[in-house]
């Protein structure tokens, strides 16, 4: 937990499920979904979501001539339907690829779990936005009705925002199937969402340059973060997209540097020189000299005091 000035900031797992943050964490991040391996990439994804929301609101409010809540809800519903279709298709294609290198029976449980999370997300999206649309269309209805609709609308929007954060991190729990599936699905989905605007030339009332930046900004950013994430998974954890989820390649680690070995014939540069410089010289310098250095001695080798 992170210490704040007036207490502790609780994580999403510790928040009550009556609050939208705790409810979104409980529904869209169950215990069987693994935590992210790389917190750097997880932070980048959150920053991308915040930047995308700021850019979208800014474009609709200050450039496009006004924020159209109905159009935003329509785009969100279309995104939910696209996720409902493209996610199973992409996972099915990858299952055909992984079938060549390993059995798929062990992936049955995470596949069903991911499908449940996907259905819950699409159901919550359609349900909450549908209720808000009906309430906005009916208008009045009494003070009590308006109060509950306002409270429920705020709770539902915060719940969807927290759900989007959780889904953006694990992409419906597909990280439990393969760690490279979330970046792949995010890339495919973002380009499919931008493809209709590119084909029809719908630039949302913007100029050509601003429209191209607005339409291509999200898929390009998502693709860059996805490639960065898969590169780090391959280099640091040995996880490749085409490899079976239960097959890991040893991560690429630079080989250790070999110890220094002097060239042959050069000797060891800091060792003693050849031979023994401090050994004794030939012979004994303090012993008697060889032979008699002062001649043959006394003239009479016998008694020197005799005659």
Structure explained in plain terms:
Residues 245-307 are annotated as: Disordered. Keywords: Membrane, Transmembrane, Transmembrane helix. Residues 252-262, 270-291 have a biased composition (Pro residues). The chain crosses the membrane at residues 49-70, 76-97, 117-137, 143-164, 176-194, 206-228. The chain is mainly α and 307 residues long. Helices cover 56% and strands 2% of the residues. It has one domain. It is built from 7 helices and 2 strands, in the order ββααααααα. A hairpin with a 2-residue loop joins strand 1 (2-4) and strand 2 (7-9). The protein starts with a strand and ends in a 70-residue tail after the last helix.
Brief description of this entry?
By secondary structure, the chain is mostly helical.
Largest sheet: 2 strands, antiparallel
Indicate how many domains the architecture comprises: 1
Adjacency order of strands in the biggest sheet? 1-2
- Which oligomeric state applies? single chain
Rg computed from alpha carbons, rounded to a whole number of angstroms: 39 Å
* Gap between N and C termini: 117 Å
Mean pLDDT across the residues is: 74
Q: State the total count of DSSP E strands.
A: 2
Q: What share of residues is helical?
A: 55-70%
Please work out how many helical segments DSSP would assign: 7
Shape from CA axes?
A: globular
- Beta percentage is under 5%
Structural class category = mainly alpha
Biased composition (Pro residues): 252-262, 270-291
Keywords: Membrane, Transmembrane, Transmembrane helix
Transmembrane segments: 49-70, 76-97, 117-137, 143-164, 176-194, 206-228
Region (Disordered): 245-307
């Amino acid at each position: 937990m992170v210490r704040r000035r007036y207490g502790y900031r609780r994580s999403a797992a510790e928040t009550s499920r009556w609050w939208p943050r705790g409810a979104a964490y409980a529904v869209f991040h169950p215990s069987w979904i693994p935590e992210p391996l790389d917190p750097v990439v997880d932070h980048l994804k959150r920053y991308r979501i915040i930047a995308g929301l700021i850019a979208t609101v800014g474009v609709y409010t200050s450039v496009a001539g006004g924020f159209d809540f109905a159009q935003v809800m329509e785009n969100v519903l279309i995104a939910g339907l696209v996720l409902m279709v493209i996610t199973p298709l992409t996972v099915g294609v990858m299952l055909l690829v992984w079938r060549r290198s390993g059995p798929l029976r062990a992936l049955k449980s995470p596949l069903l779990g991911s499908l449940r999370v996907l259905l819950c997300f699409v159901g919550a999206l359609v349900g909450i936005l549908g209720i808000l649309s009906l309430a906005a269309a009916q208008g009045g209805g009494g003070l009590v009705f308006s109060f509950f609709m306002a409270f429920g609308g705020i709770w539902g929007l915060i719940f969807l925002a927290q759900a989007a954060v959780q889904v953006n991190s694990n992409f419906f729990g597909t990280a439990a199937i393969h760690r490279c599936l979330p970046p792949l699905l995010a890339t495919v989905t973002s380009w499919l969402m931008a493809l209709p605007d590119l084909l029809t030339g719908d630039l949302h009332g913007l100029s050509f340059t601003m429209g191209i930046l607005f339409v291509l900004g999200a898929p390009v950013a998502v693709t860059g973060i996805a490639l960065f994430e898969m590169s780090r998974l391959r280099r640091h954890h040995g996880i490749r997209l085409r490899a079976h989820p239960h097959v890991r390649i040893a991560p690429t680690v630079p080989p250790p540097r070999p110890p220094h070995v002097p060239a042959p014939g050069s000797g060891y540069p800091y060792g003693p020189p050849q031979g023994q410089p401090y050994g004794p010289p030939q012979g004994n310098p303090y012993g008697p000299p060889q032979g008699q250095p002062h001649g043959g001695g006394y003239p009479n080798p016998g008694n020197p005091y005799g005659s």
